[in-house]
Write a structure and sequence with these properties.
Blueprint lengths: L6 H32 L6 H6 L2 H21 L2 H35 L5
């Protein structure tokens, strides 16, 4: 029987795809302003790529501002990007939660039974 990858692995892929779409879509939405808006999204990229839970946690706070800002613009492309940003936010939060539960389960499985 093959072992399935943990949920956090699937969520990590979802975050990376959504983050990439957001980075690629922002310059399309507003030329120079879009490029400038995409720059802060480059900061969490190394930690997201390496799968560091702390980076996923603080990146979720960053992405919330993009959801709000893109919703306010109200154009079709920015609304689509707002949906992508909202999905990224959900995947970020779920990744942190899943990784925490997986670490807790691994710690319980490794610890010796108490007498």
């Amino acid at each position: 029987m093959t072992q399935r990858p943990p949920l956090s692995a699937h969520l990590r892929v979802a975050v990376l795809v959504a983050h990439g779409l957001l980075l690629a879509g922002l310059p399309l939405a507003g030329r120079l302003a879009g490029v400038l808006l995409a720059l802060p999204l480059l900061a969490p990229l190394p930690g997201l790529w390496r799968g560091r839970p702390y980076t996923y946690a603080w990146a979720s706070m960053l992405v919330v501002f993009y959801v709000a800002g893109l919703l306010v613009m109200g154009r079709p492309l920015t609304l689509a990007l707002a949906i992508v940003a909202a999905l990224e936010f959900c995947a970020l939060v779920l990744f942190v939660r899943a990784r925490s539960l997986e670490a807790r389960a691994a710690a319980v499985a490794v610890s010796p039974p108490s007498p």
